[in-house]
Amino acid sequence: MKVLVTGGMGYIGSHTCIQLLEAGMTPVIFDNLYNSKVSVNERIQRVTGQSVEFVEGDIRNKALLVDTMKRHNIDSVIHFAGLKAVGESVAKPLEYFDNNVSGTLVLVDAMRDAGVTSLVFSSSATVYGDPASVPITEDFPTSATNPYGRSKLMVEECLTDFHAANPQWSITLLRYFNPVGSHPSGDLGEDPQGIPNNLMPFVSQVAVGRREFLSVFGDDYPTPDGTGVRDYIHVMDLADGHIAALNKVGQQAGLHIFNLGTGNGSSVLDMVKAFEQASGKTVAYKIAPRRPGDIAECWADSSKAETILQWKATRSLQQMCEDTWHWQSENPKGYPE
Ligand code: NAD
Ligand code: UFG
């Protein structure tokens, strides 16, 4: 199976390319390198012993997409490309709608022209807004609290309408919870540019000495220790979820929606402790005010994926922290240029 992976040089995309290769599939990466480095591909090759075709391009370039899909006889598309920083999206909503929403529409239009009718889309638990209860199942009401979340929700809605008009397509919406961790080799990992927005890259940069302390955003939430609770999932488990989606429903007409999470909630302080244990380093932190827009707690009911995709997250919190530390300690400045 030949799979076009938009955003394949990025954090989740690169780990998924490795698992595609391990599963005997052929990824073709399509990425504009806006938030990634071309050296990622050398790391994929180092880990798998296989080279991956890379096309440098923007998903808003329809002609290049059509040409790439036809030239490589693409069977399915996994669509990771997009912008993902919640705070930045508030300041730059147009950029987010242009990249994430218009970009996806151009991609689907290009797929139609190239005769490719199987799509897996990177959605997010952010589409559940502030959920009324936990764990969250796929039939919970959806809403958006910021432009990034709205872009994911708009894409889900556009794809739902498109699927209603084109029921022979296979469209899969994967709603990720909180991806963390890295490839166990230590050769690939998350490499945020500038100050990390997300918890675990920040924690690991404190541990490696790049930042002085972590600000814990709020300790007065109605949770066991007062800090925010999330469903952290190992990026390798998440990557495997994409392979399962391609294998089980990727050739099956339908609109398929799945949560990808572990079903366990961990607090910010749980994560700090687990990381300290895995790394043997102290992670200094200070309690800071709540971050606007944050919710108290969020974790998945992933039983639908377990039943239909026969997929289940298996890697522990300890493994997530150990692998993150392996990557961070061997690559303190991230990927080379
Ligand atoms: P990432 O930034 O590491 O990877 C995204 C990749 O897409 C980058 O390599 C970037 O260069 C590329 N890209 C961006 N805009 C592009 C464009 N217009 N054309 C071509 N390439 C473009 O992000 P990630 O963490 O790997 O996330 C992948 C996807 O998963 C995103 O759609 C994100 O919204 C979604 N997601 C991520 C998380 C998370 O916490 N990481 C959670 C839920 C959903
Ligand atoms: N946190 C801190 N300090 C930090 C960073 C985060 O205390 O420096 C806390 C947050 O307040 C939250 C938890 O750590 O309680 C996790 O925060 P992240 O920013 O790592 O993750 P979020 O759950 O806020 O958001 C992530 C992705 C979004 C996605 C969402 C749901 O960043 O893109 O999960 O999938 F939409």
Tell me the layout of helices and strands.
Layout lengths: L1 E5 L4 H12 L3 E6 L7 H10 L4 E4 L5 H10 L4 E4 L6 H6 L1 H22 L3 E7 L22 H19 L4 E7 L1 E3 L18 H9 L6 E4 L11 E2 L1 E3 H15 L4 E7 L5 E2 H12 L5 E4 L14 H7 L7 H14 L7
Parallel strand pairs: 1-2, 1-4, 2-3, 4-5, 5-6, 6-11, 7-10, 8-13
Antiparallel strand pairs: 9-12
Helix pairs in contact: 1-2, 1-8, 3-5, 5-6, 7-9, 9-11
Bound molecules: nicotinamide-adenine-dinucleotide and uridine-5'-diphosphate-4-deoxy-4-fluoro-alpha-D-galactose.
Structure characterization notes:
- The chain is 40% helix and 17% strand.
- It is α/β, with parallel strands linked by helices.
- It has a domain at 2-182 and 232-262 and 299-314: 3-Layer(aba) Sandwich (Rossmann fold).
- The strands form four sheets. Strands 3-2-1-4-5-6-11 form a seven-stranded parallel sheet, sandwiched between helices. Strands 7-10 form a two-stranded parallel sheet. A two-stranded parallel ribbon has the order 8-13.
- Helix 1 links the parallel strand 1 and strand 2 (26-31).
- The two termini are 31 Å apart.
- The structure holds nicotinamide-adenine-dinucleotide and uridine-5'-diphosphate-4-deoxy-4-fluoro-alpha-D-galactose (UFG).
- Nicotinamide-adenine-dinucleotide is lined by residues 6-7, 9-13, 31-36, 58-60, 80-84, 99, 103, 122, 124, 176, 179.
